[in-house]
Specification:
With 173 residues, this protein is mainly beta. The protein has a 6-stranded antiparallel sheet with strand order 1-2-6-11-8-9, with no helix packed on it. It has a 4-stranded antiparallel sheet with strand order 5-12-7-10, with no helix packed on it. The radius of gyration is 19 Å and the shape is elongated. The N and C termini lie far apart (53 Å).
């Protein structure tokens, strides 16, 4: 399990071997440039020593947080070389029921390809990333970064915002 910024990454799998989350240093790797937050990305199972990254075997993982969310965005850095017939699904759940998902087909190219997966305009309280397909035990070779989850404000926060807006309105009149 890994916790970062209130987001918990847990239950990793990478068939046919066991897995742990790894923070990989990609500060010197041009393949991971773009919106990648220097200098790290999240992988499963291992890392490449030094300032280069890797797209490693990924089966599935849970992404959890406190509260109810309405939007998620994740940058995926994916290699199509070994699993080009596989796909990656980002699934959103509310009270253990699937409410939305988006699916990314592994690109039919070599090298690292950057993609973004998003879900919006639906309420959810838990996420899963799940790889599947006929190649190489159904895994996807990838790293991820820039996980952004937008939470629904708590009622107390909404009340304070409304009161603040009311006060501003009264002052301007």
């Amino acid at each position: 399990m890994l916790v970062d910024g209130g987001i918990t990454f847990s239950e990793p799998t990478r068939p046919p071997i066991s897995s742990i989350f790894t923070i990989d240093d990609v500060s010197g790797d041009d393949r991971f440039l773009g919106p990648l937050t220097p200098p790290n990305c999240l992988t499963l199972g291992g890392y490449t020593p030094g300032p280069t990254g890797s797209a490693l075997r990924f089966g599935s993982a849970r992404i959890s947080f406190e509260g109810i969310a309405y939007e998620v965005g994740i940058d995926i850095f994916i290699s199509g070389s070994a699993s080009q017939n596989n796909q990656l699904a980002l699934q959103a759940f509310l009270e253990d029921s699937l409410v939305s998902q988006t699916v990314l087909q592994v690109p039919d190219t070599t090298g690292i390809n950057q993609r973004q997966m998003t879900i919006s305009d639906t309420l959810f309280d838990d996420l899963r990333l799940v790889a599947s397909g006929p190649d190489d035990y159904g895994v996807v070779f990838m790293s991820l970064d820039n996980v952004h989850i937008s939470l629904v404000p708590e009622p107390a926060t909404l009340l304070l915002l409304a009161l603040g807006a009311l006060m501003l309105r009264r002052r301007s009149v």
